[in-house]
DNA sequence: CTCGTCTCTTTCCATAGTGGAAACTAGCCG
DNA sequence: CGGCTAGTTTCCACTATGGAAAGAGACGAG
């Protein structure tokens, strides 16, 4: 099981464990849809504690998938989050990998 | 953030961490598609060590998602795996949850 | 009957991931 | 200055995960 295994078993290319973690998947999905979102909004939307969200964002930034922008709203500094180009690609690649795993949606359903 | 949070944040109903784990997701997808599959075939298809596959199968059985059937092929006892009804439902529910998270596939792509 | 093989299963172990709580930091207001 | 808000980081306990190796059950060979 070596040379041909790549031909035989399901491909995992694009599968990204950094993104796959449930909360990070939700974060990426939200940012992908929103384009850019405020930290607090993400936190509320996903119902995460600030510390947990902050840590996941750190992981995503370390991977180069997310970047921050600081801006003032209501006299207060807030952090805006968005996917980098690389993050968007990785996210889309991960979705493609998931689709490859689960197969095409059954049209009969 | 309590009563209305269920209305606000993304729904996670159906999201099943037991199934979400990468290798278990692949196992469930394979069994869902195959109906029933031999342990060895699953192992080869997914390129997993016997011990790892066995442990994941145990987890899925403990959850009531998979059942085994022992049968002889080529003079040797082999284990056949399949999703239970409950497992199939949980798997489909998880896929639905994933779709709810990532949103509808972009037709423009 | 005993031995070796094949097919899983279980145990042991080391490592990494995860979240909650709380302490900490930075900017702004009064 | 003290207090408040918005994030960040640290501390901690717990769970998950995989690899390697030992076990266990069934079967054929001799």
From TrEMBL, chains A, B:
Gene3D superfamilies recorded: Winged helix-like DNA-binding domain superfamily/Winged helix DNA-binding domain
Stretches assigned to the Winged helix DNA-binding domain: 24-102
Transmembrane segments: none
CDD domains: HTH_ARSR
Pfam families (UniProt xref): HTH_34
Protein name: Helix-turn-helix domain-containing protein
Source organism: Streptomyces ureilyticus
């Amino acid at each position: 099981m070596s040379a041909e295994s790549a031909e035989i078993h399901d491909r995992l290319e694009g599968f990204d464990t950094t993104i796959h973690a449930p909360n990070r998947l939700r974060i990426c999905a939200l940012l992908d849809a929103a384009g850019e979102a405020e930290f607090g909004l993400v936190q509320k939307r996903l119902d995460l504690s600030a510390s947990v969200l902050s840590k996941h964002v750190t992981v995503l930034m370390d991977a180069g998938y997310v970047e921050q922008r600081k801006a003032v709203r209501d006299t207060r500094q807030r952090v805006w989050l968005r996917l980098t180009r690389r993050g968007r690609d990785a996210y889309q690649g991960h979705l493609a990998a998931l689709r490859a795993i689960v197969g095409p949606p059954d049209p009969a359903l």
